[in-house]
Amino acid sequence: MIDGGDWKSADELFKKFDVNGDGVLDQEEFFLLCEEQFGEEEVKGNEWRLRDIFEKLDVNQDRGLKGAVWKRIFTEYIKPIVKPVNVLIVVDVQNDFIEGTLALRKYTSNQDGADVVEPINRLSKEARWDKVIYSLDWHPENHISFYENLSLRELHPTSKITKENAKPFDSVTFLQPHVEQTLWPRHCVMGTWGAELHKDLQILPESEQVHKGQDPDIEACSVFTKDKPKESSRLEKMLRKIGATDLYVCGLATDVCVKATCLDGLKLGYKVAMIEDCCRGVDNDNIEEAKRSIVEHGGLLTNSDRVICMVNEGRRSLIMAHHAANIISKAPSIPVDDKYPSTCACLLQNHIEQRS
């Protein structure tokens, strides 16, 4: 695997893999680079990904990487893979989802939210994270998502379910704000026992917490939910500050807030992995759909043992790298010394500043 000495110089890395010395990295030479970068075991059977990555990075479509294109690839693609900034996001491991009003074991999956506590504690303790962030649902009494608050707002004429017929977990359409909303039992009211993180969950001293769902009129499944439409979310600001590149997401519930957080992270240009043995969900069919959706959007499904190897030993995921190439291919193709306006480029610039 490429080590810390190789990634410091674009020119040195280029010379190492320009086997025929023609000043161009062709597809075969790029494959050799990837084999060293990811390891033979990761590459075997995924050659189609390597071909697609090469095509995405070959922005000039001249069947070779060289010059300014190569330097951009080195800066935006290789450096963040070889020296990532790894963040663990622990989603909503709160009393109401474990023992309270929305305890997962009451519902069709029959999964116990408490089962995530021990593996998450191990993960937070054994892996060398650049940052650990815990999210909490933190709702006011009059929150729009509570079934008990249905009488507080008018339904839109197009709502397929009326107030008289509505039951918990139904979806209704409100008039103001005009949104479709799943009705959940009252949960995680700010300042209550139900909103507290589970007592056995170990909170690391240098970690941070994000409270979401404080606006009474906004559902906040994703930890990336914005407080104000034209501003970055608090989580985005935290991640940008440390130059985060790779997000590892776990917690409750797989098919609701974990899914939404993973998909938003992928959309924003981060490499994202969902840690399956550290997640539990509400409904089995929806859990499987959530996994499919995360994979389809470029996310990795993995387990805590592999995550510890990735974070501590520098093991790399070709799936996550493939997503990074897709993001880079959509970013503006401009010189690497300029300031990039895209989200992806901002993340990469922060990464470079943090790791230089």
How would you describe the overall organization of this protein?
- GO terms for molecular function: calcium ion binding; nicotinamidase activity.
- This protein is α/β, with parallel strands linked by helices and 356 residues long.
- Helices cover 38% and strands 12% of the residues.
- The protein is built from 13 helices and 8 strands.
- The chain has helices spanning 10-17, 27-38, 40-43, 47-57, 67-82, 95-98, 117-126, 234-242, 254-267, 284-296, 304-313, 318-330, 343-355; strands spanning 86-91, 131-137, 171-173, 180-182, 208-212, 246-252, 271-280, 300-302.
- The strands form 2 sheets. A 6-stranded parallel beta sheet has the order 5-2-1-6-7-8, sandwiched between helices. Strands 3-4 form a two-stranded antiparallel sheet.
- β7 (271-280), α10 and β8 form a beta-alpha-beta unit.
- It starts with 9 loop residues before the first helix and ends with a helix.
What distinguishing features does this structure have?
356 residues; alpha/beta; two-stranded antiparallel sheet; six-stranded parallel β-sheet; 8 strands; 13 helices; disordered C terminus
